Amino acid sequence: MKNKGKTRILVDVDGVIADFVTAYLDTYKELGGVVPDDFEWTHWDSMQDLPDAHLTRHVWQDPELFLRPEPYPGAIDALKKMDSRYDVRIVTCVPHLHIYARNLWFAQHAPFIHRKGQLIFTADKSLIRGDIFVDDYLPHVYAWLKVNEHTGVIINRPWNKGDGGPEAYTRLDSLTSLAERLAL
Fold first, then answer.
1. pTM above the 0.90 mark?
2. Distance between CA atoms of 149 and 152, rounded to whole angstroms?
3. Residue 98 maps to which CATH number?
4. Same domain as 35, residue 10
5. Are residues 34 and 125 in the same domain?
6. Residue that terminates a domain, selected from 67, 90, 106
7. Neighbours of 143 (CB within 10 A)
8. Residues 133 and 158 in one domain
9. pLDDT truncated to tens, each residue of the chain (184 aa)?
10. Does residue 110 share a domain with residue 122?
11. Are residues 26 and 7 in the same domain?
12. Which of 78, 83, 101, 122 would staple 179 via disulfide (CB 3.0–4.6 Å)?
């Protein structure tokens, strides 16, 4: 899929650009939750493994939850480099309550993401067309690859290790790794 001759790169936010896990755990602790010293976020819904899992609903209701994540080291710079050369679209799936916060997050951390249609909110990422799809959640990558015959990229995170399935995607350690592969 080309847009004015540019390769379209679709990039997820949480787990790719921003450290949602730390923001989630910080919010959980602020609400009185206890995170055991040996706790590891090893699967997608690890929040359910926390001892005060009943706080999950309250964490998700915090209107600032999606303002809190810090960008991963180098992620904003890599995104900016990609955006200068490619048609970058941010594809994110957040509850409706958090759409405003997600927009504010980009205004604060990546104001160069501002073109109309550049920030896409969707419950089904496989519906968004592009040439390269970057995510940290394997089911999103699998679903996208089923309807798009292009390149899927999974960013290595503890919650997507050892997951079976088709190996029709590329594994990278960070968004910076992708920018390097694209020779930026």
1. yes
2. 9
3. 3.40.50.1000
4. no
5. no
6. 67
7. 18
8. yes
9. 444 678 999 999 999 999 999 999 999 999 999 999 999 999 888 998 899 888 988 999 999 999 999 999 999 999 999 999 999 999 999 999 999 999 999 999 999 999 999 999 999 999 999 999 999 999 999 999 999 888 999 999 999 886 556 567 889 999 999 999 998 7
10. yes
11. no
12. 78
Closest CA to 118 of 91, 89, 83: 89
Same domain, 96 and 170: yes
107 contacts: CB under 8 Å, gap ≥ 6: none
pLDDT of residue 44: 84
In this structure, what DSSP letter does residue 13 have?
Answer: S
Q: What is the domain count for the chain? A: 2
Contact 10, 134 (CB under 8 A): yes
Of 157, 139, 159, nearest to 48 by C-alpha is 159
CA 116 to chain centre: 20
Domain enclosing residue 61, as ranges: 20-67
